[in-house]
Design a protein that fits this description.
This protein is an alpha+beta fold. Helix content is 57%, strand content 11%.
Length: 241
């Protein structure tokens, strides 16, 4: 069961893209959602809050953008969920992941750009006195922002929880960063994991303290006491990023 869970978590981490491209698309979606809610709010209080003055676009272009916005959003959400679930819960060869991730990025990019164009068009229409009536679009924007806020709060609180839960060893790496239990370090260029003996086999030093150790990820390597490694300047012990 643990193997299955680890496999799923690994696939989730893989499909959760990072980088400048992903951040730009996220900011586009956040800005677009905020503008949609702002437009609707301004209508309720009868204020023209359009920040993009300009002439109306061609009527055919505006009708096309307005007509298919919900279709694009719905297809975007469904495709995104299906592709991510397919990757997470299937045995697709990891060698094709770059192609798979590229497809997801292209879909996200197309959807984000379409929504941004829709918002720009609505801001121009609002400036020219055309009323914004997209209730379902407003609902989708509100749900997206709510999910984003909840996700951000959860990640912040999880980081705080992980920090509080850490058991520090009392030693620092070569850069002065505190070393904690179960973290990964590099010592003489080799990878180790910080651990301490089980309760039934605790190794105590002369001062009755638990002796933290470096357990090599390579079975052929012997474990090393953390006290020895931390005092060995030549070994240049450092936390893995």
């Amino acid at each position: 069961m643990n193997i299955i869970i680890e496999h799923i978590l690994k696939r989730v981490e893989q499909v959760d893209g990072k980088g400048l491209y992903i951040k730009v698309l996220r900011y586009i979606r956040i800005f677009s959602s905020l503008m949609i809610l702002l437009l609707k709010l301004c209508q309720y209080i009868n204020i023209n809050c359009s920040i993009i003055p300009g002439e109306l676009w061609d009527i055919n272009a505006r009708n096309f953008i307005n007509k298919y916005i919900l279709t694009v959003i719905g297809s975007w959400i469904v495709c995104g969920i299906l592709l991510r679930c397919l990757w997470i819960f299937s045995d697709i060869d990891e060698e094709i992941f770059p192609i798979y991730r590229t497809i997801i990025d292209l879909i996200d990019g197309a959807g984000s750009v379409y929504v941004m164009v829709y918002v720009i068009n609505k801001l121009i229409e609002s400036y020219n006195g055309i009323v914004f009536n997209g209730r379902l679009v407003v609902l989708v924007a509100a749900i997206y922002l709510l999910c984003y806020v909840c996700k951000s709060l959860y990640e912040k609180n999880y980081r705080n929880y992980s920090s509080w839960k850490r058991v520090y060893t009392g030693y620092c790496d070569s850069a002065g960063r505190r070393i904690y239990e179960n973290t990964t370090v590099f010592y003489y260029g080799k990878e180790y994991k910080i651990s301490k003996p089980a309760l039934g086999s605790c190794i105590l030093n002369d001062s009755k303290k638990i002796e933290w150790s470096l357990e090599s990820v390579m079975e052929s390597e012997e474990s090393i006491t953390l006290e020895r490694a931390a005092s060995d300047r030549e070994g240049n012990i450092r936390l893995a990023k």
